[in-house]
User: Fold this.
Amino acid sequence: MLLHLPRKTTLDGYALLLCLLVTGCNIQFGSNAKQVPPVYVATTDPNFNAHQDTLYAANQLFSGHVYQLFPNGDTEFVKGFVNGLEEGVQKSWHANRQLAELRVYTAGKKQGVQKSWWPNGRQRFVYTAKDDAYNGVLKEWDEKGMLYRDFNYTNGQEEGSQKMWWPDGSIRANYVIHNGKRYGLLGMKLCANPIDSIRNGNRETINVESRNDKR
Assistant:
């Protein structure tokens, strides 16, 4: 996949850096997290390209930040890279300036707490990742703030209590996974999650376009 990026910036870069400093507190990083260089490029310069999950600049592994702006000049997203792989805090915003996603990467893999919000500011989902796999509690809410999914994972596999609700609040599924066996009410057909490709053999590829519809 060809990725178009831009020239280095000055004032825009400082503004983005300030934005990250102001809103990037209390974020958990992996023990092997690397420092992303204070270099900022926009997604409009043809001097860069990406292959699968790796970003290159003039055929060299890219280290720095990639950003994109909305037509009105507001920031749409900022993503950090070290040696061609996503690294550190990655943020995206809705057009109304509401924070849309806050993700943390280490060497191209999601690590730690990952969060998303709806345009109205309500929480959309929160979960913990370990080496790009779900690990711990995963919760999802609809746009009205109704919790509709509360799952538990261990190293990318369902383990423990799993619950889902219908929009009216009635139970949709309520079961327990223990040692690979399911016990309890299964009121729905389980299938691959359409809004995420974490694990499940469909690893996300690098795409500097906004990915607000993914976990």
Observations:
- The chain has two domains: 1-24+32-110, 132-196.
- The longest helix spans residues 11-23.
